[in-house]
């Protein structure tokens, strides 16, 4: 009995000891993340949302249209990187955590504390506004909830907000932050806007169209249905696409869907969910959607079809590349389901009837110049134009088109219509234009330009080899040669020569260029390098006054150089 009692006592002591030690053991683990901003999180952009040439890699958190909101570390960790750039993420902090993840905070207005001082020291040491500073773990430790920065609108931000990411530290792969318990109100189902059905067979059709057909939708109590009809006539091999958007509670911003499932007669032929977004495959978002419809109408059309060079790792249960065969005389029930991360779901169900079209299907417009294959290197040349497309640039087989157009206003060559803007490329192609032998121009000022959807020239750059001007580019479209002899524009915005700036805490100077773009700028105050921050979206550089400014006749000098070497200088005496 005594032995039994002693054994029970030892067991009780062991249990109590474990209960006492367990909290101590757990203390070293990450105990869950707190929100990076105070208050209710409202989103203007979600993870996996389709952006220009990439999936959105985080959450865009609203800040009420203002800058300066305190940004908190979501967990204990170390600031391992601080970046300052005039574009992209702008001012950004990277915090590494013990759980194998890294949190990222971007478009900031300012860094807080020692890291901000260190970044400024590095800017002055390198005499450059844009810096990418790495720090050893332990140099800048942070605790969960610490204020590490203040929200802003820096870089390529379209308005004040915080861009927030959670990444797998190994490989720096962004993952969906909503997986980690950040609470965002969402009780709204995805909105299905339009249905697209695509034909992939040589002799097939969709409602008499050889390539594709769009059908309007309407929403009912049991989900979405085709507007004004119950069925679609088609024949051959087809796939589907759905134009859709999603919104969060209390927000009208257009966001992306999380999961799509396509079933034919209850068999899944396509399913995807966006949980990770590796940067190395980011441009393949252009193969995930119908890029043509994005360029034409602004629609985000999620496709069931998986192109040969689409290597995204988001797909499951794919059958025959997301296509299915429609046989004559057969009927097929097609169901498309869209779901957001919170589980709100929308569905569309309709029937496809296999039936020949009484007339010859209407072919797609345009004369084909050549056929390019995605798994080959492709090239084309004609007179004064050359094109080389490396293997892997194309996502799918391309019916390539080329046309030589007349010389345009301010162009020094013909305009070369290289296919069209509505076909995406995954990597760079090489494009060359031969110049006329009697061209009287400073060839150092020449550059190749493309033209945007409104016909405005966009500088692509270029390098001369003999008579050929060559450039690497990632877009089809219209190309020509232009000359840029106009220097950048430097002009003070909120102060003037000889005027007192005592009431100003920031000196702002306009910096712009009409064509090739700004290559570099340099500012000095009384002969010493001065940090002037660059905000290219607003075409300004600015100096936030510090103890370097004496207001006793300081001499501010700025030099700006564009990408073909044109130079401007500004010299001002400031009071």
Notes on the protein architecture:
The protein has 575 residues and is mainly β. The chain folds into 5 domains: 1-30; 43-180, Glucose Permease (Domain IIA) (Distorted Sandwich); 191-354, Coagulation Factor XIII, Chain A, domain 1 (Distorted Sandwich); 370-483, Chondroitinase Ac, Chain A, domain 3, CATH 2.60.220; 489-574, Immunoglobulins (Immunoglobulin-like). Helices cover 9% and strands 43% of the residues. It is built from 4 helices and 45 strands. The strands form 8 sheets. Strands 14, 15, 16, 17, 18, 19, 20, 21, 22, 23, 24 and 25 form a 12-stranded mixed beta sheet that branches. It is globular and about 90 Å long. The chain starts with a helix and ends with a strand.
- Shape, please? globular
DSSP E strands, number: 45
SS element count, helices = 4
**Any idea of the CATH topology of the largest domain?**
Coagulation Factor XIII, Chain A, domain 1
Quickly give the CATH architecture of the largest domain: Distorted Sandwich
- Sequence stretches where pLDDT stays below 50 over 5 or more residues: 1-30
Alpha-beta content class: mainly beta
How many domains is the backbone divided into?
Answer: 5
Estimated radius of gyration: 29 Å
What would the average pLDDT be, to the nearest integer? 92
Give the class-level CATH name of the largest domain.
Mainly Beta
Strand content is 35-45%
Distance between the termini: 95 Å
Largest sheet: 12 strands, mixed
Helix share bin: under 10%
């Amino acid at each position: 009995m005594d032995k039994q009692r002693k054994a029970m006592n030892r067991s009780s002591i062991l249990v109590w000891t474990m209960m006492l030690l367990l909290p101590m053991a757990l203390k070293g683990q990450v105990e869950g993340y707190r929100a990076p901003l105070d208050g209710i999180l409202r989103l203007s952009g979600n993870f996996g949302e389709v952006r220009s040439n990439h999936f959105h890699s985080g959450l865009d958190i609203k800040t009420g249209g203002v800058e300066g909101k305190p940004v908190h570390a979501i967990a204990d960790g170390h600031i391992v990187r601080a970046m300052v750039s005039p574009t992209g993420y702008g001012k950004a902090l990277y915090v590494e955590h013990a759980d194998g993840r890294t949190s990222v905070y971007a478009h900031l207005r300012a860094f807080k504390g020692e890291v901000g001082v260190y970044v400024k020291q590095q800017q002055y040491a390198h005499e450059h506004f844009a810096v990418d500073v790495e720090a050893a773990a332990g140099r800048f430790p942070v605790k969960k909830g610490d204020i590490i920065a203040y929200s802003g609108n820096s870089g390529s931000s379209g308005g004040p907000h915080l861009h927030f990411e959670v990444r797998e530290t190994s490989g720096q792969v962004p993952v969906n932050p909503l997986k980690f318990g950040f609470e965002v109100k969402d009780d709204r189902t995805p909105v299905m806007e339009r249905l697209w059905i695509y034909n992939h067979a040589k002799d097939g059709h969709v409602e008499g169209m050889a390539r594709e057909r769009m059908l309007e939708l309407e929403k009912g109590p049991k989900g979405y249905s085709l507007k004004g009809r119950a069925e679609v006539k088609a024949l051959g091999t087809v796939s589907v696409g759905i134009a859709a958007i999603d919104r969060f509670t209390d927000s009208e911003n257009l966001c992306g869907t999380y999961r799509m499932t396509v079933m034919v007669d209850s068999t899944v032929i396509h399913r995807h969910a966006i949980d990770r977004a590796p940067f190395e495959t980011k441009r393949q978002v252009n193969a995930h959607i119908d890029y043509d419809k994005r360029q034409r109408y602004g629609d985000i059309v999620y496709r069931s079809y998986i192109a040969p060079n689409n290597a995204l790792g988001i797909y499951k249960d794919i059958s025959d590349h997301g296509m299915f065969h429609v046989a004559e005389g057969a009927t097929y029930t097609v169901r498309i389901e869209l779901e957001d991360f919170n589980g709100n779901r929308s569905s569309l169900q309709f029937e496809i009837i296999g039936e020949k079209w009484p007339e010859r299907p209407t072919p797609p417009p345009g004369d084909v110049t050549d056929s390019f294959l995605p798994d080959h290197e492709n090239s084309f040349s004609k007179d004064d134009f050359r094109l080389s497309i490396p293997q892997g640039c194309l996502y799918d087989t391309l019916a390539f088109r080329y046309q030589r157009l007349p010389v345009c206003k301010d162009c020094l060559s013909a305009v070369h219509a290289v296919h069209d803007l509505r076909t995406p490329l995954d990597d760079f192609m090489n494009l060359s234009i031969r110049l006329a032998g009697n061209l009287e121009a400073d060839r150092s000022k020449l550059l190749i330009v493309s033209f945007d959807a409104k016909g405005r020239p966009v500088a692509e750059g270029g390098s001369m080899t003999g008579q050929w001007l060559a450039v690497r580019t990632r877009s089809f479209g219209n190309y020509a040669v232009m000359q840029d002899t106009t220097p950048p524009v430097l002009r003070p915005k909120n102060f003037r020569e000889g005027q007192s700036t005592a009431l100003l805490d920031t000196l702002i100077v306009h910096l712009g260029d009409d064509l090739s773009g700004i290559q570099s700028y340099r500012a000095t105050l009384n002969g010493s390098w001065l940090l002037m921050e660059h905000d290219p979206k607003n075409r300004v550089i600015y100096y936030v006054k510090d103890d370097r400014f004496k207001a006793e006749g300081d001499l501010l000098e700025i030099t700006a150089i564009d990408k073909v070497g044109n130079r401007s200088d500004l010299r001002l005496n400031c009071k």
